[in-house]
Amino acid sequence: MINNMAIELEWYDLVCFGIVGVTLVGSLWVVWMHEGSSKSEDERLLAGGEENGTVIGGVRSTKLWSSCWPGMHPLWLLLIRFLSFLTLAVLQTLDVCDYDVTIFVYYTEWTFTLVMIYFALGTIISAHGCWQYINKPPLQNEEVDLFLRRDLEESMPTNPIACKDKETKASISLYSQYVEEEFKQIVGFWGYLMQITYQTSAGAVILTDIVFWCVIVPFLSISHFKLNMLMGAMHSLNAVFLLLDTALNNLPFPWFRVTYFMLWSCGYIIFQWIIHACGFTWWPYPFLELDTPWAPIWYLCLAVVHIPCYGFYSLIVKAKNMILIRFFPPALFRT
Question: Which residues cross the membrane (predicted)?
């Protein structure tokens, strides 16, 4: 079968393979370049060096389960994430019962599952964060700095020769970093996984719903496609719940993580190639077909469209931050 497939390959097939291959390698390179610097970013965060609220490497663990809205108890975010996960799980269960597991040949099901994973991780991390919040409320940065400076000033000798300004500032800085580590921990593997899942889901949901409502429904109606209430809910509630979480959460949205979104789509396309090489003949999306000279144009457009989809969601996050900064004092707005 492999030999037959190799004989049937055309030049446009090779171009499509090249487009996906370049996207895959380029995305991995960007991930390696930026995620590889996470250690230095964590050190910068511990020193209090967040710039304009933009986080490139790691984030404070409290940002995973706290809300950006002043005065909002983290239990509300936990409740919303849990109800979102529960609703999406019910919808996908009904979908699988109607169409069996072969429904997972669709990109929609992949994205829907990814959004469910995000809400599952968010529920678990929010629950743990609420437990920490209730049992040991975190100290504010101003209170920590005031306590540290007062403690150090009282413990320093009064001899001016022994208390040089430079040494005092260095001691305060080192001691502050050490104690602040006890108050707030930098997120680990699960924190990164939650962030990556959130940012990948954001771009994938925009792409999925736009393609479904603007391309498939009006132009690609085919015999085995029939729009119903369940299908409409699955192509809308995923975005609704994710946007609701975005309106409340305190997670960053760095530009370079569009590469995870691209890697996600590359994984789906490679999956389609593999099952077709194994004998699967039907393409769930006609624009993924390889047996046409127009295929490279479609594949190139699909690669490019990831950027505006991710950028559109990034604008939503920035708009939320601008609204909060405008209507709430900077001291209250958690960025």
Answer: 12-32, 75-94, 114-134, 202-223, 260-285, 297-316
